[in-house]
Amino acid sequence: MEASCSLLRSVSCRAFEEEQKLRKQEIVSRILKEEAKEEKRKRQHPPAKARVPRTLRNKTWSYISDFCEGKTASYPLENDTVEYPDPARLLKAISSESIQGDPEATSEEETLAVPEIPGLWNEDYKPYQVPKEDVDRKPVGGTKMDKDVLARTMAQLRSAVVHRQVVSGREFKGRPFNSKPELILFKDFDIGKVYKKKITLINATYTINYCKLVGVDDHLRDFIHVDFDPPGPMSAGMSCKVLVTFKPMINKDLEGNVSFLAQTGGFSVPLKCSTKKCSLSLDRELIDFGSYMVGETTSRIITLTNVGGLGTKFQFLPASEPHTMDDSQVGSVLKMSSLFTSEDKSLYETVVPSFSEHQFEGRESSPVDTQSQKGSERLDGKDQDRGRPAESPLVFEVALKQGTHLTMAGQPGQRRSHHGWRDCQPLQTSGVNVGCRDRWSLLLGGDKFNKLEELRNGGPAAFTTQTQERMHTTLGEPEGGNATINVASEAQMEIRLGEITEGEIGAFSSTRVAIIFTPLIPGETRAKFKVVFSNAQCPALYFRATGMAVDVPVWVPKPNVDLKICVYDRLYQDSVLVHTRSKVALRLRFEVCRELRGHIELLPETGYIQALSSYSVQLKFLPRLSLPEDAGKYFDKESRILEAPMTIWVADQIKPVGFTVHAIVTTSDLEVSPSELDFGYCTIYEAIKTEVSLYNHSLLPQEFGFVGLPKFVDIQPNDGFGTILPLETLQLDVIFQPTKAKEYSFELICKSEINRCFKLSCRAVAVHPPLELSHYQIKFAATALYSTSVATLYVVTSQLSVNSLTRSVPRMGLEDTSLVGPASFEFLLPPDSPITISPSVGTVLPGKKCLVQVAFRPVLPEELIRQEALRTLNKNMEAESFRKDTATQRKDRQRQSLFTIRLHNQDQSFRVSTPHTLDLQKQELKASYDEDQTAQAALVRAFQGKFDKFVVPCVVATGDIKDRKRLEPLSFSPHNTLYLELWCPAVAPSVMVTSDRGKTICNFGDVAVGHCSIKKVSIQNISAEDLSVEFSVLNPNGPFLLRNPSGQLHAGETQVLVLSFSPHDSILAQETLDIITKRGTLTLTLVGTGVASTITCSIEGDVLNMGYVIARESVSSSFKLHNSSRLPVEFSVRLDSLSSAGAERRQQLPRFLASPLASAAQRTEVVGTQNHGGQSVFSVVPVHGVLEPGRAQEFTVTFSPDHESLYFSDRLQVVLFKKKISHQILLKGAAREHGMFVEGGDPLDVPVESLAVTPAVDSEHREASSRPAPLSPEAEEMKPILVTLDYVQFDTDTPAPPATRELRVGCIRTTQLSPKKTVEFSLDSLPSLQHKGFSIEPSRGSVERGQTKTISISWVPPADFDPDHPLMVSALLQLRGDVKETYKVIFIAQVVT
Questions:
Q1: Lowest-confidence region among 151-155, 526-530, 1195-1199, 1259-1263
Q2: I want to staple 1377 with a disulfide (CB 3.0 to 4.6 A). Which of 295, 673, 686, 1319 is the partner?
């Protein structure tokens, strides 16, 4: 398949190329024909005026035609004085100048550009007529109206499909399905192949979702096919596979989306198809060959890398060499040449000189230079138009190796024949005329031109035959006795490309090309190359190469001798190696510059170097302290850098060989600061530490050490030894600890590694105080927070006698000793320290001692606890404020479309008032005790340990504190002060609370009276040993109880303490529970409040009547329960019909059968008629839950009877906390088979149905009853209704009010379809009833669905009524709806006195 495709592509490409060639030939032939006609017309009609100059197009095409035919004759452009340049440069110049041409140039009268498609401007243009058979045809895809209708229909369908997804009160928003991978990428595809990729769609919503494929974008339907089998409902996190097939038919990048539709909205997966492309790069942009001798050859490798999927042909060329174009490029040039229709002379004169510039241009001419040259040539053209002669000299440019541009002038006729400098015109550089000799000196460089002069004038023998041969490669044969110079690119000759310069680079491959450097003439050589590609989309790549050629007989390989960093007055030596390429021995003389002859020496001063060998000279450098003044300009005092030039004189050679000695000269001084130390007064029981700094002035690291230290002095760190880095300052501690009372004066000596000494003078006065401490340092054990550690020490007097010969006596330095007697002391504690000393003040008699206790109790600072509490409160308040702001903004955005102006005002007031409110809240923010406890627990839990060191001064005075006066202080001497050092490590407690964020306050909150609340507190032993645990006793009559006390807590173990709170009254209770271990006590505070629950119901009378319902239909009603207490109440709802007691009750006989007195109690049954199908008649939701404080819960009761009955009833009970019955609600309802009912009158049956089920009326009877044929009352089933009226007679003289009763006729609302929407009723025998005293209003009427109508019945005894005999009459009440029902209403009237 691939072979056939490639064959077809090759055949099509060949056909396309042939077609292009025929097209080009046709265009050229048409142009030539038009040219011939124009010439013939001009010959037949010669112009009367002067000859019109030829147009630019005529001149250009005449040159192209001659060049294609192989003619080499020169065609003059103007006055036949200028030759035509190279065609490639012509095309390049035309292409560049076509863009920069004069915008005001006028076009020719005739044009050869013929459009392929006729335009409206043609005279013979005929507008296209639509065929009649296509007039009524609709466009592809339908009309715009059809598309709009289709779009609206699809939007409506999708809106019906898309639904909001809300789970647990959270609405899902975002992308419903995630795709892996996120991008469907087909990279580097080939036309004709088929590519397939699978993606996975993962349901990212909260619950079940669906996914449906909508399709791909319209521009991708011809290439992309998606196979997707909808998996149906997908749970959250589930995935499905989608297969995407790509069959490319065009070589073009494609981008689009694959669209899907989910239940929560649409989404799409991006798709991208990329063609094969070339991505080419070079591994370097500069090749530096370094220095090489003339005649040597070296090479460097440059790598061309293609990281794309498409290969291409490449070619390495010098940057100035034009690229060989293929047929397609020629076609583009021919097409471009057709744009040149202007006859502006200035344009032509601008283009032609640029040809000469490009023809003689160097290899490193830049586009900027070219633009400047073109601008100057335009000026020359304008000057020529003003009257300059036609044979003005041509200006061409030569690019030197150093990158400077040089313009040379010469006659056009002399350019090809005379190249010597004797016949050339004066050179103009920067406005200065330079002769030919100077011009070629600038052109070739000073050294090369000197060699060239020596060659012409028979120079010295130093020019070998090889050098002459190299020069002949750049010099032509002499003409007329003068040497000719070929102005060629020397850089191209010295730096050239290797054998492989072109080829083809495949996809994801690289190729290596060699760049060869063969220096010919000493000096620096630079060259610029480019890499061009056959793929037009690949830009050319450029790189540069540079090299240095040397041709000196004697040279130093290391022209820079680096001695690194040197120190004054130290000797440094190095050897300098000298090489020669000469074939004879040479005498060398080594010379040091005059300023440094006292510091640098070269030995020997004179020597002979043999042919083609090397010579070594010894360099000695001994910098003196006078070097900065002696060296002068060769030494930089700020950077301390010395650059000393050295010279090697070679016999019979004018130019010497030089090299430079580099060194950084530095000092070796060390500075001790301060230079003198005064320790002052110091007791013999203490040590004084003072810091000194040691600074290194040198740029080198130095080793140092303090030697010969006395016994009472110590230097740290490392005992005063170490290494100091350059320009570094070290801090050293000098510790002085005297052994007896006297005056000290001594010196400390610091020596460096080069045996230099630096002194430090010290002095001090030692004191022997009258009192001393048994311990001057106490190291407490690790103490837990809020625990106490105690240590003891003694204050002892050492003054027993004044004889200094037997023992040391108290005194200061060399002063007199103090008298023997009592001495007093006082410890001065630092403020806010966790240290307690008892006693802190006391007196010690001679030969006695005093016991002192030092207690350490680490606690957290109150300020730290308060800050933590405030930080926590601020954080919570900010979170609450942010939540409220977010909710308010969300509501504002929802109402913005309706109330824009009002919302704007409200939003401004809200924004103004909110910061003020927050500021007030922050000002009034105060942490309560509970919040402080929470913050303290958090800090204790996060406590990582702390180590504090306290130095407590103990002042000493002579005398007893009892003898002093009340306000008179003792005479304490500051020099007799003793110091007690305390090491106080604080750690976290061994047992801590790990639950509820470490709070030690267990708050049960509000608990209903009679109920029990349980809380669990987790404690953990964070120590490394097992602990025995004891608990304090709680109040046995109180509401708190520890249910699981434990006696052991292992290391690292966590135990859960179960605490309960059972309030008996509405009170606030609080107790403390101590958890006691040998390492400390942890106190838990138990708090709780007893609250009585209060629930109210919205139903008055505790009866909920559901009314009438069509059998097998349902109706719902609701009521509310409101929690008016302060705590949430747990509730549950149950029905008596579903309870076990209800089932037992249904097994017993009805009350009217079981008891002779049941007639009075037969209406008191709670659970009435139930459904035959077993399903409950009444149902309620919710059945359980929690009522929050101050909130109401709505309950929905549904009445669903499955047969006809008037006595459906049940009882609903609301139970709180699964114990207490709060409310009992009686549920009642009635059901009918048809949508009509009559209620009222006296009951004639019992509320309990018979066990025998009344058979339903068969379908035939129903059909007969629904027919419109009239039926006699006797044939219909009549239902009796008893209406009893009691006329109350209060007094025989005054008439009493009539006795009244009511009947209600109703039409039940139903969802069933019925031909009649109303119920009609009528009561017959109305005249007979009126005759007997009855008044009925209304006697007939109609009732709408869901409505009832009342029939009022009143009775007044007629005149002939016998009070002893009650009146009983009957009438028929007929109801007509979907069926016809007849009721026999029996009226019984009597007079009651």
A1: 1259-1263
A2: 1319
Residue 1280 bridge partners (DSSP):
1384
Q: How large is the angle between the packed helices 327-337 and 56-69, nearest 10 degrees?
A: 150
Instruction: Report the C-alpha gap between 1371 and 1324 in whole angstroms.
Output: 6
Q: Residue 1059: beta bridge partners?
A: 1015, 1042
Strands (E) in 1001-1149, as ranges, are 1001-1008, 1013-1021, 1027-1028, 1030-1031, 1040-1042, 1048-1049, 1054-1061, 1068-1077, 1080-1091, 1095-1097, 1103-1110, 1115-1123, 1129-1135
Cβ-based neighbours of 692, under 8 Å, separated by 6 or more: 672, 673, 674, 677, 731, 732, 734, 760
What is the phi-psi region of residue 832: left when phi exceeds 0, alpha when psi lies from -120 to 50, beta otherwise? left
Q: What does the block give as tokens for 1229? A: 């309802």
Identify which of 1082, 1049, 1090, 1046 has the alpha carbon closest to the alpha carbon of residue 1066. 1090
Which residue is associated with the tokens 């500075």?
671
CB proximity list for 246: less than 8 A, separation 6 or greater: 186, 189, 194, 195, 196, 197, 223, 224, 225, 273
**How many CA atoms lie within 13 Å of 1368's alpha carbon, on the beta-carbon side?**
7
Tens of pLDDT, residue by residue over 215-249, are 898 888 889 999 998 888 888 889 999 999 999 98
Dihedral (CA of 1137, 1139, 1141, 1146) sign: positive
Residues paired with residue 1072 on neighbouring β-strands, in sequence order: 1085
**pLDDT of 133-158, one tens digit each?**
444 555 555 688 878 888 877 776 66
Amino acid, res. 1145: R
Length of the chain (residues): 1393
Which parts of 120-265 fold into alpha helices (H)? 144-161
- Please name every residue paired with 408 in a beta bridge, in sequence order, or none if there are none: 396
Closest CA to 207 of 161, 168, 265: 168
The tens digit of pLDDT for each residue in 1162-1205 reads 455 678 888 888 888 899 999 899 888 888 999 999 999 988 88
Nearest CA to 1265 among 1255, 1254, 1274, 1275?
1275
DSSP 247-316: ---SSS-EEEEEEEEETTEEEEEEEEEEE----EEES-SEEEEEEEETT--EEEEEEEEE-SS--EEEEE
Largest CA distance in the chain: 179
Number of neighbours of residue 1129 by Cβ within 10 angstroms:
23
837: Cα separation from own chain's centroid: 58
- What value, to the nearest 5°, has the Cα angle with vertex 554 and ends 552 and 557? 95
- Enclosing H/E stretch for 506: none
Joined tokens for residue 589: 């003389």
**Six-digit token string for 1111:** 């059998």
Quote the tokens at residue 924.
């009034």
Query: Which is nearest to 1211 in space by CA: 1198, 1224, 1197, 1196?
Result: 1224
The full 3-state SS of 1137-1184, as one line of letters, equals: HHCHHHHHHHCCCCHHHHCCCHHHHHHHCCCCECCCCCCCCEEEECCE
In terms of Cβ atoms closer than 10 Å to its own Cβ (0-12, 13-18, 19+), residue 177 is: buried
Lowest mean pLDDT among 555-569, 988-1002, 1139-1153: 1139-1153
Beta bridge partners of 1074: 1083
Q: Give the pair of three-digit tokens for residue 1150.
A: 């009805």
- The SS3 call for residue 863 is helix
Q: Which of 685, 667, 707, 660 is nearest to 771 (CA)?
A: 685
% of the chain at pLDDT higher than 90: 25
Instruction: State whether the Cα torsion 649-655-657-663 is positive or negative.
Output: positive
Q: Which residues pair with 1287 in a beta bridge?
A: 1391
User: Following CA atoms 932, 936, 942, 945 in sequence, which dihedral angle do they give, to the nearest 10 degrees?
Assistant: 140
Q: Would you state the structure tokens that stand for residue 1187, as one six-digit string?
A: 């009522």
Least confident window among 158-167, 288-297, 1091-1100 = 158-167
